Amino acid sequence: MDLRKIKKLIEMLQESDLNEIEVKEGEESVRINRKKENIVQTSPSMLATNQLNKNDNLNETDNSVKSDNHESIVSPMVGTFYRKPAPDKEPFIEVGQIIKKGETVCIIEAMKMMNQVKSEFDGTVVSINIGDGEPVEFGQELISIEKS
Prior knowledge:
CATH 2.40.50.100, 4-stranded antiparallel beta sheet, 22% helix
């Protein structure tokens, strides 16, 4: 299945009240679920690749120290990460900055559209895990927050 179609499905899911969507095209299929613990599942030919990526992410998480007081802001889609609203503007957030729930923390560009990512909780920015202009994947950890 074409990556552009998958991106469009993710956008459609975000814009709707649905929690999950599944599409089959011949022998290929894609299931996208809003829950953080689920990852996009695809046909058997692509499942092995997704499982390898999932295991890599689990290893990274296991190596980092997480407490009940820390949360992560993850990418809601595949795209390009931007810390600033425009190249000549200041970044939305900096490490050590206190942020509020609903505050814009970055932008993800997907399919020529700029999508604001907002914080889901109050807290202090502990780390920004992606460089400005770098590609991101769905569910990838962007920012670590210490909840207040």
